[in-house]
Amino acid sequence: QAQLVESGGASVQAGGSLRLSCAASRDSATPSPMAWFRQAPGKEREGVAAIRIIGTTFYTDSVKGRFTITKDNAKNTLFLEMNFLKPDDTAVYYCAAGARTPFLLRASTYAHWGQGTQVTVSS
Length: 123
Prior knowledge:
Blueprint: E1 4-7, E2 11-13, E3 18-24, H1 26-29, E4 34-39, E5 46-51, E6 57-59, E7 67-72, E8 77-82, E9 91-99, E10 110-113, E11 117-122
Parallel strand pairs: 2-11
Antiparallel strand pairs: 1-3, 3-8, 4-5, 4-9, 5-6, 7-8, 9-10, 9-11
């Protein structure tokens, strides 16, 4: 059974930093691009960052220069380093794997999802 488990969410002040982690079972993560999504109350799930197997990364415009996605292939763990956090970054953050299309920031691309971790940024 494919499994993704996120951790690292917390409440922080604006301007702060957080590092999210996603531990992936081998069935769910390899070989596949992986991504981070987020969903704020009343909004659609939004692609935040994605990483190809070869390491190429993609970001939604609102996080470019502030967020960094990386993956430790040996440990099957995905990370999202978030700096200069803003209140608009407040959301539940989800890890995704099992990409079925090349559109890596679309939620419909992914077959496997974690349970989410809450990030709250206060002003």
